[in-house]
Amino acid sequence: MAWETAAILLAVGLIVALFTNMPVGFAFGVVNLIAAWFVFGNADALSFLVQAAYSSVANIYLTAVPFFVLMGTIFVRSNLSSMVLDYISKAVAGLKGSGAYTAVAGGVVLGALMGASVASTAVLGSTLIAELRRRKYSKLLAVGTILGSGTLAVLIPPSLGAVLVGSLAGISISDLLLAGIGPAIVLSTLLVIFITVRIWFFEPDIVDPVAADVTFADRMIALAKLTPMLVPIFAVTGVIYFGIATATEASATGALTTLVIAYAYRQFSFKEFVAMIKDAVVFSAMIMFIVVSSKAYSQILAITGISQGLTELLAGTTAGPTVAVALVLGIALVLGCFMDSTSVIFVVTPVLVGVMTQLNIDPVWFGALFVMVVGTGAITPPFGLNLFTVKGVAPPEITMRDIYWISIPLSLIEITTAVIVLLNPGIVRILL
Question: Which whole-number Å values give the CA distances from 286 to 24, 35, 102, 192, 293, in the listed order?
Answer without folding.
Answer: 9, 23, 33, 35, 11
